[in-house]
């Protein structure tokens, strides 16, 4: 059976470190490249880039525990060319570990330029009292909602089965203002068992909130995104290939940057991740 | 007139770099130390640590623009001892700039250990269409709400005038579960004109959501926090020494980590910042 395109996209190859740094934990170096199946308008879909940054942690030989938090800063557009990710365990405690990651690409001048910076927290979780204060909204089940196949301007959209419940992408770009809320069912296409990498990528599937809010297609670009994981490997395994309910909305649009907060529940109503990002918009 | 304790706390001294790194932008180095007026149960109040990390960016000679996003990872407890912050402009674009920062302290073995990692995005903002999707809740005005002076277990609490509207810290630690929502008016004590540094600190003033949710005082510690700034220097100047309305709640408590999302509005109802954090809890 052919490998799932997402697995191809997040495959990294560990390489020997080329530079020695002193006095701190040395980073591990990984080679990777954007995958054509997840191409965006310019460069790759940011969700897959976020997953690649997390992958460098998950494949690091010194990894402790499972992901708790991930922040990815999109410092420049990722070029359709090979990249290197450096992942460093900045601090390892008894049950938590803090990571810094950098994605580099060789620029036109032959210099390794920083394209993405990121941090992550991993932890060995223990069973504790647990609860949710964000119950899943009451919505129709995924198979009772029509899948939307948007105009195929970008490749990565085809890699997700998306079923908007409310707040679809505007049909008419007429400047009619509304709220910024979208709810949709989503899963990989073809289906793929959920893991931390695909969950991180799905945190970035929502079309830009400013498009929903204004019905004006202004240019946008995420500059920083954070994902908090509220599930362990066992909970993700239970979700399997089922749909996730995603909900996203903004709180502020101010002079060129808006925020987005989103939640991802599985079909059983477990809140698996909450995620936040700040996005540049042009006008 | 004596300097405000917050200004003393965020004062950093730039020092000559001690190590040379090659191939990337060199970091600037700053010396600082925890301030006794902002002491927490163990080490300093995390909000002031976040402000110190941001200060290293604001004082950096290569700074471009104003803060848009800040993520601070609390990798270890900050000791009551001097520290060094390294701040590096990882990528400078035409109107945005990406930063990585590290706070180091010399450990018992004489080694410089990473205590805090952080990233920030700064930008030269342009006037654009702006709007908010998170209007300020309708609440009594600050002077109509009683200031609460909690038991003085920790010093930093005294540095904030806090007036809980709903969801105060539990009076009875009887395990009676409720929701995780708190709304309160707050400002510096003594009053101080709002700036990006004090706004970043105020993003961390909320007592742990798990205490509110459970009425059980379990040990906690923030592991990562993110602040998105939705105001420029002019908007902060307009706020001046007025109170901010803070609102905080959690979405998930799962096996040792809970999240917190919060908003900060000024008295005129402008949403100045949204902020998110993930917090360790013991049981």
UniProtKB/TrEMBL annotation, chains A, B:
Gene3D superfamilies: Acyl-CoA thioesterase, double hotdog domain. Residues 36-121 form the Acyl-CoA thioesterase-like N-terminal HotDog domain. Pfam families: 4HBT_3, 4HBT_3C. This is Thioesterase family protein. InterPro entries: ACOT8-like_C, Acyl-CoA_hotdog, HotDog_dom_sf, Sec_Metab_Biosynth-Assoc, TesB_ACOT8-like_N. Residues 151-280 form the Acyl-CoA thioesterase-like C-terminal domain.
């Amino acid at each position: 059976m052919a490998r799932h395109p997402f697995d191809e996209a997040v495959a990294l190859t560990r390489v020997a470190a080329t530079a020695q740094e002193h006095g701190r934990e040395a980073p591990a170096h990984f080679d990777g490249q954007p995958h054509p199946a997840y191409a965006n308008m310019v460069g790759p879909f940011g969700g897959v880039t976020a997953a690649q940054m997390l992958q460098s942690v998950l494949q690091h030989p010194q990894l402790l525990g499972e992901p708790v938090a991930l922040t990815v800063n999109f410092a420049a557009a990722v070029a359709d060319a090979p990249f290197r990710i450096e992942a460093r365990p900045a601090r390892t405690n008894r049950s938590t570990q803090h990571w810094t990651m950098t994605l580099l690409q060789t620029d036109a001048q032959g210099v390794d330029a920083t394209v993405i910076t990121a941090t992550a927290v991993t932890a060995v979780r223990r069973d504790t009292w647990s609860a949710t204060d964000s119950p899943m909204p009451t919505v129709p089940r995924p198979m009772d909602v029509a899948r939307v196949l948007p105009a195929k301007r970008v490749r990565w959209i085809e890699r997700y089965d998306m079923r908007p419940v409310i707040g679809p992408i505007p049909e008419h770009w007429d400047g009619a203002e509304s709220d910024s809320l979208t709810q949709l069912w989503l899963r990989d296409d073809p289906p793929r068992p959920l893991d931390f990498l695909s969950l991180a990528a799905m945190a970035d599937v929502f079309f830009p909130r400013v498009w929903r809010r204004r019905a004006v297609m202004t240019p946008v670009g995420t500059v920083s995104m954070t994902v908090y994981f509220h599930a362990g490997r066992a909970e993700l395994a239970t979700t399997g290939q089922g749909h996730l309910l995603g909900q996203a909305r903004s709180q502020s649009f101010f002079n060129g940057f808006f925020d987005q907060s989103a939640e991802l529940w599985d079909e059983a109503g477990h809140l698996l991740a909450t995620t936040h990002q700040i996005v540049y918009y042009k006008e």
